[in-house]
């Protein structure tokens, strides 16, 4: 059964975001909130984590239940900006070096939707050893090798 | 087609376009209103597990049609195409990724069930079975023993009564009752 249209969100440096917006994925929702975040040199880790974590939960209730006890600043987060919170986002593209900064938030995201995809940036080529999903895959395969 | 190559190609074309058309990043970011490319989540069933599959579709017109009219229009068009291709590939990759994650969860759950059944349910049933069999065997033995005891008691009782009878016959107190079948002469018959 096909659900209603979902968006692709982007968290990346200026070039990545520009490129993907030109690819046609950018949208402002009815509250004028965008489905992308441009990460610059002065963007704080908290802001990235905040935006990402909210992108990944299905509903407001689940965002509260997410493991954010280690970060007191998240209590002030605005739910409307958060990507994980919005159920109209199906895929989140994130540059791998940014993913490294919020690795713990990524690892905590267990659900299959929205799918979090790590993409390379111009300065940082793709490293499969760092990808959260591939690390899980490696864990699975070693168990199977033993069988 | 590898994701890395497509992304590299797209990044190159972005650099080219920036070189020709100048810095259009802010313009692009400011002019966002509606997405032309969206995705649908379809459900696919594989071996009893429902997997989400992403399907991308186009909607509406290109909001960046007029960007690059001043300079670098062709580079910008190429850039848009490259990134559109990258997006399609990434949607496919995301589908595979979600399938993997969903299947991983399903495998973990199934493993847990297998372990639970193997180490808890089956031993419990086997123990119950063993207990039932042991109990039945014991009852059979008890029954057997009871029967034997009864037979012995009956034998003893019979021997005892026979001995008493003999003693009383010898003492002359008891005669054997008449045996209808053995008698040769019947007194009651007048004519023989």
Automatic annotation (TrEMBL), chain B:
Subcellular location, principal: membrane
Subcellular location: Cytoplasmic vesicle, Clathrin-coated vesicle membrane
Membrane topology classification: Peripheral membrane protein
Molecular function terms from GO: proton-transporting ATPase activity, rotational mechanism
This protein's UniProt keywords: Ion transport, Transport
Gene3D superfamilies (UniProt xref): 1.10.287.3240
Protein name: V-type proton ATPase subunit D
Organism: Myotis myotis (Greater mouse-eared bat)
């Amino acid at each position: 059964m096909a659900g209603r249209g979902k968006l692709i969100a982007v968290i990346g440096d200026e070039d990545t975001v520009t490129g993907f917006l030109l690819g046609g994925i950018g949208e402002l929702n009815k509250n004028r909130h965008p489905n992308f975040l441009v990460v610059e040199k002065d963007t704080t880790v908290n802001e990235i984590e905040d935006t990402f974590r909210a992108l990944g939960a299905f509903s407001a209730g689940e965002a509260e239940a997410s493991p954010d006890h280690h970060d007191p600043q998240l209590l002030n987060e605005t739910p409307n900006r958060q990507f994980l919170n919005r159920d109209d986002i199906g895929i989140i593209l994130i540059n791998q070096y940014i993913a490294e900064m919020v690795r713990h938030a990524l690892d905590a995201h267990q659900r299959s939707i929205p799918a979090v995809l790590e993409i390379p940036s111009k300065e940082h080529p793709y490293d499969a050893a760092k990808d959260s999903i591939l690390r899980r895959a490696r864990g699975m395969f070693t168990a199977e090798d033993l069988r | 087609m590898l994701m890395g190559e497509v992304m590299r190609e797209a990044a190159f074309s972005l650099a080219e376009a920036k070189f020709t058309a100048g810095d259009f990043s802010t313009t692009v970011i400011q002019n966002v209103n509606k997405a032309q490319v969206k995705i649908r989540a379809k459900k696919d069933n594989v071996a009893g597990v429902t997997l989400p599959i992403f399907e991308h579709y186009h909607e509406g017109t290109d909001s960046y049609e007029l960007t690059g009219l001043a300079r670098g229009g062709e580079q910008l068009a190429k850039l848009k195409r490259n990134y559109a291709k990258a997006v399609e590939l990434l949607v496919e990759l995301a589908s595979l990724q979600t399938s993997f994650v969903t299947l991983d969860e399903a495998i973990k759950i199934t493993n847990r069930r297998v372990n639970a059944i193997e180490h808890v349910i089956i031993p419990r049933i086997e123990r119950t079975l063993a207990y039932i069999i042991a109990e039945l065997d014991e009852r059979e033995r008890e029954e057997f023993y009871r029967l034997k005891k009864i037979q012995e008691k009956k034998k003893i009782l019979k021997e005892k009564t026979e001995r008493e009878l003999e003693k009383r016959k010898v003492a002359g107190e008891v005669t054997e009752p008449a045996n209808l079948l053995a008698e040769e002469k019947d007194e009651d018959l007048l004519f023989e």
